[in-house]
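It is worth pausing here to work through a concrete case rather than discussing structure prediction in the abstract. The textbook approach is simple: state the sequence, then state the predicted structure, then interpret. We follow exactly that order.
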Amino acid sequence: MSNKNYDLKSAQEASAKGQILEWTIEFLRASGNPNQGLANKLEREGHYHFGPTEYSLERLQNIIGSNNSFKYVEEEKKLTARVEKMYRDIKQGWQPPPIIATDFWEPFLEISDGGHRQRALLKAGIKKYPTIFFFKSKQSMDEFLKEEF
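Step two, the predicted structure:
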């Protein structure tokens, strides 16, 4: 699956072929800001997953921000510039890759990749967006699906 355009359509196509785990790992390694840690974790522990499926963006815990209340702190100017670029692209028709949420590091789901995309989508007035969920166990996945779907 190399030389792909990593967007929503390619994720949906991979999902239809039963290849969303592989697509996600490749996306995380190939994107402009690679997320090698998550890609490696998914290779070892990505057995339990669901999606992409429409999910409320506001219900997802974002871990990137410009102050110390966030797990990953990014300088305000850089954060704003990245979100603004994505926002403009969305307004011009870009459909970003799905948000990726996990419960690998916390006892709740958090955005492990897509914090900037989430902010840009919300700014564009989009309240729900396809999200891929990865779970640390079958039990946590089953509990989530029972509560949410």
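Step three, interpretation. The chain is about 45% helix and 20% strand. The beta strands are 48-56, 64-65, 72-73, 99-102, 110-113, 128-135.
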